[in-house]
Amino acid sequence: MPEALEPRGLVSEKGETEGRYFMRFTRAQRYLHVALFTSFLGLAGTGLPLRFSESIWARHFASAVGGFGAILFFHKFCALVLTFAFLTHVKDLVTRAFFHHEKGIFWGSTSMVANWKDVKDLFGHMRWFLGLGAKPKFGRYAYWEKFDYWAVFWGMIVIGFSGYAMWFAPFFARFLPGWALNAVLVVHSEEGLLAILFIFSIHFVNTHLRPDSFPMDMVIFTGVESEEEFKTKRADEYKSLAAQGKLEARLGEAPATWLVNFSKGVGFTAILIGLVLLVLTLTAYFG
Amino acid sequence: MTANTLNTRVRVFPARSTRDTCHSFVAQQSTILEGVNTAARIIHRAILIALLSGSCSAYALQKPADSDCLACHSDSTLTKDENGKQVSLFIDQDKFRHSVHAGALNCVDCHADFKGYPHPDHPARVQCETCHTEQAAGLKGSVHADGAEHPCTSCHGDAHSIFPKADARSQVYPLNIPRTCGTCHGNDAMAKKHGLPNVYPAYMDSIHGFALSKEGLLVAANCMSCHGSHHILSHKDPQSPTYKSNIPKTCGSCHAQIDVDYMAGVHGKAIAAGNLKAPVCTDCHTAHAILQPTEAAFRMQSTPICGSCHKEQLSTYRDTFHSQLGALGGYVQTARCWDCHGAHEVLPASDPRSPVAQGNLVKTCGACHAGANLSFVQYQPHANAHNRKLNPALYFVRMFMNLLLASVLTFFVIHTILWLIRSRYDQIKRRAANGGTHA
């Protein structure tokens, strides 16, 4: 198959494939990401002053926005937005899997569920880091992207549950043991801290700031990526789509300039806020 | 004119001083003639003095009458020069007539060294203790014992217009006391000199000061209510009402029920047993700046006060939502120490009357958490996640979370750094090759 692909690629570079764009994310998925990161930034921004309530910046921030009452209100508001986004996603999964009988959601090369190839890719990737082997050819979702997804999925369940347990403590106390009421704060704050540290350092670098995507991977905002990018980043998916002749079905339109610029504005703002929060977290944690 | 000025040495009188004119009429006649009005007055006095002098020998045997003194001292322009400053020697009869000493005392009863005329240029210090023996005795052992710095008049005011303490004009009338004491104790220079805090502004802004100055409540605590009046002792003196172990009684003289509650609690018992480490009223409420306990500032400042002894409890409290919420301000309703433990009658959890006794927890927690039940109150507001024996479940939850955090971050930080280095290396190496920037 690679042999068959090569000449086609060469031809296309000069001809019709020049400047082709391919769909990666649906509109709903892009909106979900926006809902996710805006509410997450809000939750992080209002959660961190609580987690490090003794630090000076936390107190200054709290007094600037009207004290804890305002912080808690905003935190709960963002929590509701995120909960809604999460439930929308779960509903989408259930609909696609059980009503539309969409294949490949729970297993296969297009699924978010980890498979044996991911394990091989992980080790292969690390061998490549050390110069011990060739770079693996990734499928639709690479192993670190799956980890990102499940980390957020698990994180929302854990943080969400512990958060609601604190919000409605007397209700949760009906079926939770006493010590769990103590534990939920520890779980909520530690898992929240993990999410903040992970997203604002690992996710930012892996997805946006690494040399391949620097300064930002626009695909999550525009939904499309250039053929060249598709081919290099997800060689395996590109190949198998080409082999199946489904490549054209995924063709999309080049993103409008305004959308690219607007997305850059939003994206860089989010990254900037995240990095500021990361620095504040690290100074408070080690300070 | 105060006792202080009476006691001050009178220096050389300038030629034009009225007093001088009065006393040395003949010698200063030429000066007197300078003004017609003055001359007329002086002639009048000269006649009077001539008459007095005529019967001088007989007069000297008798005490001078008030009218004799007032012959000169009723002149409102009568002054003497004291260190270049004109000091009035005028006695306002109207005021004196209403003062506490009017009718009972004549001038020479106090100015006992004035046997006749002419009287000494340097009058002796008036000895109030001649009559006020009890007060003088009290003052003697007090912080104000130094009579030169603290003459009676420094508190009681002008010696010739001292009013009964129940009279609103008195400087020691309850509503006037803070101002009187504040003359010195509201003075930064004085506070610095004696190493005392400038407590006057703090008091005036306190609930006591407010009740007194704004509401005019006679029962509001003024300086005297706590410190006493003549026999004021340092708070370090075990006899002082402001000595630590005496404070509950001092405050309790008004706040009687709180005193009873406090003495029944662990802190009161400790103080009664002579343990001076236990907190008394002022440790939480402060002595002068006393805030309303419902005020945000008080709720914010008090937890660390309890924590200055109960360190472990403060540390575990800080790990909880109660503390984290409160620390950010603007949300001070979250539980502070005394919201659960009680403020005055603090009892150990083993005491069934204690609000933190097992049987009372639903009610205590329920004060804020509507719907608190037996399961809810198993929450431990002082759980220590570092203590495996006391809080095993919490200990392992925290350990699991920390391990998760550390392992995920460690793995991915290494993974990401290696990736970054390798990608950049590839990018530089194959810049011109197929794949462009996407190495």
Polypeptide structure, described:
The complex is a heterodimer of chains A (287) and B (439). By secondary structure, chain A is mainly α. Chain A has a single domain, classed as Fumarate Reductase Cytochrome B subunit. In chain A, 72% of the residues lie in helices and 3% in strands. Chain A has helices at residues 2-14, 27-51, 56-65, 67-99, 116-129, 143-167, 169-172, 178-209, 219-222, 227-233, 235-244, 257-286; strands at 21-23, 224-226, 251-252. The model of chain A is unreliable at 1-17 (pLDDT under 50). By secondary structure, chain B is an all-alpha fold. Chain B folds into five domains: 1-126, no CATH class; 142-232, no CATH class; 240-289, no CATH class; 291-378, no CATH class; 399-439, no CATH class. Chain B has a two-stranded antiparallel sheet with strand order 1-2. In chain B, strand 1 (79-82) and strand 2 (85-88) form a beta hairpin. The radius of gyration of chain B is 37 Å and the shape is elongated. The termini of chain B are far apart. Classes of the chains: A mainly alpha (287), B mainly alpha (439). At the A-B interface, helix 2, helix 3, helix 4, helix 5 and helix 6 of A face helix 22 and helix 25 of B.
Short structural description:
The complex is a heterodimer of chains A (287) and B (439). With 287 residues, chain A is mostly helical.
Comma- or semicolon-separated keywords:
heterodimer; A: 287 residues; mainly alpha; Fumarate Reductase Cytochrome B subunit; 3 strands; disordered N terminus; B: 439 residues; 5 domains; two-stranded antiparallel ribbon; 2 strands; 47% helix
Q: How are the secondary structure elements laid out?
A:
The complex is a heterodimer of chains A (287) and B (439).
Chain A: H1 2-14, E1 21-23, H2 27-51, H3 56-65, H4 67-99, H5 116-129, H6 143-167, H7 169-172, H8 178-209, H9 219-222, E2 224-226, H10 227-233, H11 235-244, E3 251-252, H12 257-286
Antiparallel strand pairs in A: 1-2, 1-3
Helix pairs in contact in A: 2-4, 2-8, 2-12, 3-4, 6-8, 8-12, 10-11
Chain B: H1 3-7, H2 18-23, H3 29-32, H4 36-54, H5 56-60, H6 66-73, E1 79-82, E2 85-88, H7 93-98, H8 107-110, H9 133-140, H10 152-156, H11 177-185, H12 188-193, H13 200-204, H14 207-213, H15 223-227, H16 247-252, H17 256-264, H18 266-272, H19 281-285, H20 296-307, H21 311-318, H22 321-327, H23 337-341, H24 361-366, H25 392-429
Antiparallel strand pairs in B: 1-2
